Amino acid sequence: MSEGAAAAHDVLLVGGGAAGLRAAIAIAETNPSLSVAVVSKVYPMRSHTVSAEGGAAGVIAADDTLEAHAYDTVSGSDWLCDQDAVEAFVEEAPRELLQLEHWGCPWSRQPNGRIAVRAFGGMKNMRTWFAADKTGFHMLHTLFQTSLKYSDVTRYDEWFVARLLVDDGRVHGVVAIELRTGRIQAITAKSVVLCNGGSGKVFPFTTNANICTGDGMALAYRTGAPLKDMEFIQYHPTGLPFTGILITEAARAEGGWLLNKDGYRYLQDYDLGKPEPTPVLRSMELGPRDRLSQAFVHEVEKGRTIESPYGPIVHLDLRHLGEKLIETKLPMVRELCMQYERIDPVKELIPVRPVVHYMMGGVHTDINGATPIEGLFAAGETACVTINGANRLGSNSLPECLVFGARAGKAAAEYATSAPQPPSIVMHQVDEEVRRIDQLRSADRGTERIADIRESMQSTMEDSAGIFRSGDSLSKGVDQLADLQQRLGHVQLSDETTVFNTELVAALELENMLDIAETILQSALQREESRGAHQRTDFTTRDDERFLNHALVYRDSDGSARIERLPVTITRWPPGERIYGR
Amino acid sequence: MRVTRYDPDRDSAPTVATYEVPLRKDWAILDGLNYVKDHVDTSLSYRWSCRMGICGSCGMNVDGEPKLTCATFLSDYAPGPVKVEPLSNFPIVRDLIVDIDDFMEKLPRVKPWIVRDDVTVIDGEYIQTPEELAEYKQFSNCINCMLCYAACPIYGLEPDFIGPAAIALAERYDLDTRDRGQRERLDVLIEKEGVWGCTFVGECTRVCPKHVDPAGAIQRYKLKAAQENVMAFLLPRAAR
């Protein structure tokens, strides 16, 4: 059933995590006359920002410089980032983190009451601000509670955005399902900012929450906006086996060691430096995530990992840190280990393995969050500006949400002040969407289960686009995905209820994920080199001549993925070698 | 697992459905529910997201006790059956999903943000020592999971009661050295649906999965409120 437009706003933010809420506050503060709304498929406090643990990087120490943070980020990205964006990012990050402090974020402190910073992977200086080991949780709740000050920000909690309203190359709002009632309605807007987070759930083993299904990326892709750098998937080196729950990099920053089955700190065999008793920046366990995850795979090949009921693992050793440090700096790590592994890291080794964690790729935007589609913006993990290139450094993503959330919010607001009213013709798209969704919901004579297709997709992605890929594995994956798209056409939904139909939502999310999965594989196939998190066994070296550029993937009218290339923006740091540990 | 089912389109009242799920050592109640949804009855509806006890989505009554189902393990209820019901004291929307609009409306009332009049933005951070941070830290750990509201017998009887989490969050800001909003929050909490509804049963603190002490927060607030009342009595014409 359709009831026309539920409401009209000037700016619509899709997603209520760090990026979306930061954008909302930015607009409410700078353009209070604009009508702003946040639409989220979950209550904002449930957004996946909440799970981030380790910290947020911003230059604050007297002996640190913006240039150093930029260089760490550029080299961390294996030179695939856009350096103008990185320069803007490192400059604005400290301001954003400070703003959050003024809004009440409980940053951990030095004894003198000033902000404390810690080391983090791939960073030459200590610049990672942290709130115990629940930084994302505290940032999200600070942003959410601060957003409550602005009673003019309208919220649509538990509304699932199914498509963008677009006419003549311009976005005019969204069509969304109000989950409580099942009503499908338009919310029109003069500009839309996609802040839906990442898409880790296309893989079987991920730190990501259930909600991370690439909705924003899929919405943009289907509307004709290109996705960028989709082949770059970050595996975080330390996730718990079975659940995939994240054990923060901070555990290594505070001094944790990675040990193989012989109790050996194996990272020393992989050009990451020599083991010292205390952490050395940009060395060993504080190397970049892509290199650490790759080292794990090599250890598996050498038979030096430990077999567990959930596959090969290595050990994270925190015992030498002592109970006091663990309780002060890593309390949630201890709790998670005791609850989910029934071990106490104070006395025992933590079983860990690499786990899909973050998508460097996403909706292509400029430095202000604008996509090539008029009226459409993106920020946070959904977007690819890019500051992360081929590999993201830990603790850059939380400030990324703030910096680009604020930028995209302001840019979207500016755009809205002179954008035309949405034309009434877009309401036809609402009817189309209602028909499509009603049809999907009453698909009770299909033969395929959502869970089966999803699991097949996930194992296809793991096999074809894992830490190491090959042309063969990727091509096979492309074929398998095509088959899964077919099977999705025969999906069976048994839940016909309109009220809170989570099966329908799962089907729509699966559609999104299959589209995203294809863009990942196609982009990976075309990148015939190894760089950062994209490692090809058939093209093992970095090839700046052919591939110092981004893959932009567009959806053609026949549904197939078309790749174009976009050069990387170099400002101050010509391509060099990534050196860690020496 | 004996799970509440309720489809408002079809049912006049909730019913209970029984499902068999594998008893795996590592499985939480949530894994059991996911097994049912993926393989047995795809229409079963419930909220979940992070599955690591930090997002607050998956609160339900397990054998009558409010729990985070992602952090509660099947093996603790073996061999079963284990009862899984929607959180008490909230209206049921569908199956295991409850309506938490009441909390979402109450939370902003206590002004859970830094209240400060200074217009000038200071250069750099407010100074806050680790000891000062420790004063309010535990109250800032609330994940808004609503287990405390489900456990609170007063909230069950008096739906106007502003409730444990909201008061704990008010206290979080009151105790934050950066905040200047104590008076404004007191004005809200001194009302009868504020702290005076609480009879110190203490169930809220007992069930909190993040070791927040809402009962403690409420009792401290009562002291503040009582002091306020006494002052108003002794100095009726003094500026408040």
Concise summary:
Chain A has 15 helices and 22 strands. The radius of gyration of chain A is 23 Å and the shape is globular.
Describe the structure.
- The complex is a heterodimer of chains A (582) and B (240).
- Chain A contains 15 helices and 22 strands.
- Chain A has 582 residues and is α/β, with parallel strands linked by helices.
- In chain A, the strands form five sheets. In chain A, strands 1, 2, 6, 7, 8, 9 and 17 form a seven-stranded mixed beta sheet that branches. In chain A, strands 18-16-10-21-22 form a five-stranded mixed beta sheet. In chain A, strands 11, 12, 13, 14 and 15 form a five-stranded antiparallel beta sheet that branches.
- In chain A, a hairpin with a 2-residue loop joins strand 13 (306-308) and strand 14.
- The mean pLDDT of chain A is 96.
- Chain B has a five-stranded mixed beta sheet with strand order 2-1-5-3-4. A two-stranded antiparallel sheet of chain B has the order 6-7.
- In chain B, helix 6 (164-174) packs across helix 9 (214-234).
- The radius of gyration of chain B is 21 Å and the shape is elongated.
- Chain B has 240 residues and is an alpha+beta fold.
